[in-house]
Amino acid sequence: MLDVLLPQRCLVCGAGGPQLCAGCRAALPLLGPPLCERCGAPTAWPVRRCSECSGRRLAFATARAAVAYDEPVRLLVAGWKERGLRRLADEAASLMAERLMHPGDAVLACIPPDGDRRLKRGYHPAERLAIALGAQWGLTYEPLLVRSGTSRRQRGLSLPERRRNVAGAFRAHPGTAARVILVDDVYTSGATVSAAASALRAAGARRVEVVTFARALRGRTPVG
Of 54, 147, 193, 195, which is most buried with the most CB atoms under 10 A? Predict the structure, then answer.
């Protein structure tokens, strides 16, 4: 009945039907090798460290994303984060499960929200994504992280400002699983996921790997 009163349209092309039509799904800018072994940035050839992560102390072991963060992908992420179109998180999780290697035995966690944003949205988009990805991979999601203070939004901040903004922003529950897959929607600079990974490792995790739906690229053409 709701679809009759409020017909759905693809967020990318506007065609009537699913929130992401088959044509637009097939046209998403998939990320594939060669990639930086550490942070997952597209590279001209396989490298252990690239210009984005070389010289940085990152608390996570690896980071991988399914698609590049271009304008159509931005519309999809905004759809589930800002407009409450929760089915899009399931679509994103399906793409991640298709594109990213199954991690094996591990526990899924996600970047926790701040209280104000969760109240405004009525749910936590990253948690919805992590739970949906867990269902695809057959892995358990656990709310391992909490916010230990308030921080500004990362959008619009420089890389040094992003690092300072999230320093000490997270706390993990003691006895955290030895291997954790940290889930978030978009990898931008790596500052937020590195701060969260640091908290997980301080609580007992021996290895933290990051997986995101999208990754912001710096002047590169998506590969794959």
Answer: 193
